[in-house]
Amino acid sequence: MKKILFPTDFSETANNALIYALKMADSQKATLFVLHAYEMPVISATANPVMVQDVYKSIELSNFENFKDQVPFIRDIAKENNLDHVPMHFILEEGFLNTILKKRVEEEEIDLVVMGTNGNSGWDRKLLGSNTVNAINSLKAPVLSVPHDAVFNGINSIAFSTLFAASDKIVLDKLVKIAKGYDATIKCIHVIEDVEKVNREVVESWLEYYDGNPITFTLVEGKDVEKEIFTFLDKENIDLLVSVKRNRSFLEKLFTSSMTKKLSYHTHVPIIAFHEE
C-alpha cells in the first residue's frame, strides 16, 4: 500500500479514525491523503443571480478558512502520536462525498480508504454509517471502517472470513503483505453447517499454498455465520476483521439493524471490506 485516502468531517469520530489511518500509512510506508468534501446548498432558480454568486463565494471562503484552520490540528494529532513523519496531502473539494471518493480513488490510484463510523448509538442504528456503506458498495479500493469506540493498540491478530473461493485467495494474498507490516497473524475462519461437507482437497491446497506464512485456518460448524464469526473474534482477541463484499455476504447482513442489535458490543473492532475480484 502506497496511497491511503482518509475522508474527514473533523469530528471526534473522524479524528479517532485518523490515528488508524496514520498508523496504517506508517506501517506501509504510504502517503496519507486527507480529504474534506462539502456540499453547496440548493438555491431557488428564481433567486437573484448576484445574490446566489455572493452566497456561494461566502460558503466557499468559509469552508476554505475552516479547512485551513483544521490542517494544523490534524498535524498536531499526528505529532502527539509520534506520526508527524508520515507524509500527508490535504484535499478540499466541493461535491457529494461518494462521487469525490470515487474520482479520487481512480485518479490517485488509492490502495485503501479509511473511514470513521459513529458506531451504535441506539438499537435502530447500523454498525457502519451510510457514507461508509456507500463507499464499500461503490469503490474499487478496500474500505477500512473504524468504529467510534475503537482504540488502536497495534494489530497482532487479523480475522479473515472465507469461503475458500478463488477470489478470497486474491484478497488473502494482499492481506499477507499488510499483516507482515505489523508482524501479525491472520486467522482464517470458514463457517459451514456440516463440516463433513467441506471440500478437503481445496482446504489442503490452501494449507499447502500458504505454508510458511503466519496464517491459521479454522473450520466452524454452525448455521448462524455472523454469530460464529463474532464468537471467534472474542475468543481469538481479534484486532481487525477482514471480509469480502459479495452480493449477499456477511457484510450485507452486518449492515442490518437486526444484526446491530445482536452485535452492538462489537463496535470496537475495525473492519476492512474488499470487493470480490
From TrEMBL:
<dbReference type="InterPro" id="IPR006016">
    <property type="entry name" value="UspA"/>
</dbReference>
<comment type="similarity">
    <text>Belongs to the universal stress protein A family.</text>
</comment>
<protein>
    <submittedName>
        <fullName>Universal stress protein family</fullName>
    </submittedName>
</protein>
<dbReference type="InterPro" id="IPR014729">
    <property type="entry name" value="Rossmann-like_a/b/a_fold"/>
</dbReference>
<dbReference type="Pfam" id="PF00582">
    <property type="entry name" value="Usp"/>
</dbReference>
<feature type="domain" description="UspA">
    <location>
        <begin position="1"/>
        <end position="147"/>
    </location>
</feature>
<dbReference type="InterPro" id="IPR006015">
    <property type="entry name" value="Universal_stress_UspA"/>
</dbReference>
